[in-house]
Amino acid sequence: MRRTATRQLALVALAGALVSTGAAAPPPEPAGAAPAKVPVAAGYGGAVASVDADASAAGIAVLRSGGNAVDAAVATAAALGVTEPYSAGIGGGGYFVYYDAKSRRVQTIDGRETAPATATETLFQENGVPIPFEQGQTSGRSVGVPGTPATWKTALDAWGTRSLGQMLKPAEKLARDGFTVDPTFRAQTELNQDRFKDFPDTAKLFLPGGALPVVGSTFKNPDLAATYAELGRKGTGALYRGPIGEDIVRAVRKPPVDPAATRVVRSGDLTTGDLRAYGTKRQAPTEVGYRGLDVYSMAPSSSGGTTVGEALNILERTDLSKLSETQYLHRFIEASRISFADRGRWVGDPAAENVPTRELLSQRFADSRGCLISPDRTLTSPLAPGDPRHPAACGGSGQAAPTTYEGENTTHLTVADRWGNVVSYTLTIESTGGSAITVPGRGFLLNNELTDFSFAPAAPGVPDPNLPGPGKRPRSSMSPTIVLDHGRPVLAVGSPGGATIITTVLQTLIGHLDRGLPLVDAIAAPRASQRNQTTTELEPGLWNSPLRGRLEALGQGFRQNPEIGAATGVQRLPDGRWLAAAETTRRGGGSAMVVHPSGKP
After folding, report:
1. 284-406+528-561, CATH topology level
2. How far apart, in whole angstroms, are the C-alpha atoms of residue 362 and residue 347?
3. Cys-Cys with 537: which of 131, 133, 476, 561 at CB 3.0–4.6 Å?
4. For residue 99, what pLDDT is reported?
C-alpha cells in the first residue's frame, strides 16, 4: 500500500488555490497524518474512491472546501495522471458519467480519442497483412487525439463550480514535490522496462539512471508539473491549438527513439489540424431497468453500456438470488458470452457506423438471445450474433467472429458530494504504459488507443464496425455506471481492464444487487470473464475452487488470469451516509475516503 506524506502536499496546494478565490479551505492535516490506503469508508459530506490514496485525497479536499462531485472528479483524475501515469493522464481519453441531483438526470461525456483524418481501414496493415500488435502498440501510429483535457473542461464548464486551473493545482504540486513509489508502480515500470529504455525521454523519467524506481523512494515529475501549470494558465487551448499540441504531433510523426535501439517504431500521421478538430460529445446515456432500478452507463462509442445492459436484460428473467453458486456463475458466463457476440457485430463509433443501440437494449432482443441458455450445457464460442433489428427466438444471424484483443489497463474513479451529485469516470491511455512515448519536455505518456480498432476484420467476410477510419473513435469497453432508484442514486461503479471491464462491472452489479454482497465484497469477489472466446478467464479464487470442476461438468472451459480489473464504487446508504468502496488487494488495493467519517458535520 502507498502510505504517503505527499497527500499533505496536495491538500496544502488545493487550500492555497481555494483561498485565492475567497473560498473557505480546510486546514492542512499535520505532517505524517496521512492514513493507510483503505478499501472502504462510510460517512457524510461526500465520498471518493480510486486506486490511489493521493488521488482520493485530492478529491476529498475539494469536497471539504465546498466543491462538488464534478470538481472533485477532475482533481482526482489529474492526480491519477501523476501517480498512475501508466494507466491515465492528459495523453489519453475516457468516459464521464454524471448524475445531477437537482434535475435527477444522468448525462455523459464521450472523451474518447480520435484517429487522424487520414486513417483508413488498413491503418495497421502492411502488404495486406496486419502488423503484430506489439509493433502497433509501441508506435506513433497507435496514438489518437487525446480527449482527457477536453473532457475535464467540458465537465467543469457544464456542471462544475471551480476552474480547471484550480483543480489542476493539487496534481501540479504532487508532480513537482513527488509521491512515494509503491510495489505496484515499480512492477508496472518493470513490465515496460524493455520498451521504455528505447525512448530517451521515457527512460529519463521512469528509469532514472537506467534503473527501476526503488520502492519507498520519492518520484518527481517536474515536466508534468509545468505542463499542468501551463494548462491551468492558458486553458486546454494550449494543447488543442498551442505548443503542447505541437509537441505531441512532433513526437507522433517522428517518435523520439534512441538511435541505438533495434526496435521498429513506426511513425503516425497525427496533425495539428486533427487536434484543432477534436471535440468531446455530450450524449444521452444507455438505460435499462433491472430489478426495479434504472441502470445508466456509456453509449457508443463505448460498448460498455450496451453490453452490460443486454446481459442484465438477459439475466433479469432468472432469479439469481435463488440459484446455486454454480448455476449463478453459469448464467453470468453465458449472458456475457451472448452479449459479447452481439457487441462484436454491431457496436462501433456511431458517427461512422449504424449502431442499433436502442434495439440492442430492448428486452425483446434480450429474450430472443437469453433463450439460448441451458442450465445443463454450455454454448460454444465464437457464438454467432443475433440481429437486434429483427429478433429471432433462440437464433443467430450471420457468421460468428471472435472477440479481438484489448489491453487491460485503465483507471476508474467514483465521486459523490453532499448534494447527492455523483460521477462515475473511467479514463485511460490504453495499454499499461500506453505507446511508451513520453512527449519530450512535457512529462506524460501518449496513448496507444488506436490499437483498440480491429487491425483487420475479426473473421473474413463478417462485417466489423470497429475498423479504423478518418476521425473515428475506436470501440471501447469502458463501463462507468450509475444506478438509480426512482430518480435517486443507489450506487455507482466502474473498472479498468480492457474488455474485462464489461464483465467486471456486470459481476459487481449482480453480486451486490442479486446476491446481496456488500459493495466492497462484490468488488473483492473472485472474477470470471467470458468474452465470446473458447475459454473463460478465471482469477485464482475461482480457478482453485470446487466451483471450477462443477462448471466444467456443464461444458465450461477455463484459463487462468491472475488479476481481472480494479473496480471502485460509491453507494448511498439508507441512513443518508455515503459509502466508498475500492479493491482490497488488486493493484495493491484501492483508496476509499469520505469527508466526515465520524458522523454528520
Report:
1. Serum Albumin; Chain A, Domain 1 (1.10.246)
2. 15
3. 561
4. 98
Q: Mind listing the pLDDT tens digit for each residue in 55-91?
A: 999 999 999 999 999 999 999 999 999 999 999 999 9
498 marked ligand binding residue: yes
Active site residue ranges: 410
Domain segments of the chain as ranges: 40-121+129-283+407-439+514-527+565-597, 284-406+528-561
Rg (CA), the chain: 23
Q: DSSP assignment, residue 198?
A: T
The three cell numbers of residue 207 are: 528509469
Average pLDDT taken over every residue of the chain: 92
Q: Helices marked H in 113-182 — which ranges?
A: 133-137, 148-159, 164-177
- Cell triple for 215: 520502492
d(CA 226, CA 168) in angstroms, rounded, equals: 11
Whole-model pTM: value is: 0.93
Q: Is 452 annotated as a binding residue?
A: yes
Distance CA 308, CA 321 (A): 19
Task: Centre a 10 Å sphere on the Cβ of residue 262 and count the other Cβ atoms it contains.
Answer: 6
Helical spans, DSSP H, in 324-377: 325-346, 357-360, 363-370
How many residues appear in the chain? 601
CA distance 92 to 89: 6
For 254-298, where are the alpha helices, taking DSSP H only?
272-277
172: phi then psi, degrees, rounded to nearest 5: -60, -45
User: In sequence order, what are the residues at sequence separation of 6 or more whose Cβ sits closer than 8 angstroms to the Cβ of residue 334?
Assistant: 372, 373, 378, 379, 530
Q: Are 309 and 317 in contact (CB under 8 A)?
A: no
Q: Is 64 assigned a ligand-binding role in the annotation?
A: no
Asked if residue 112 belongs to a known ligand binding site, the reply is: yes
Q: What whole-number distance in Å separates Cα of residue 12 and Cα of residue 25?
A: 9
What's the rounded Cα separation, in Å, for the pair 81 and 216?
19
C-alpha span between 501 and 178 (Å, rounded): 30
Q: Taking the CA of residue 551 as centre, how many other CA atoms within 13 Å lie in the half-sphere pointing to its CB? A: 28
Task: Point out which residues pair with 50 in neighbouring strands.
Answer: 591
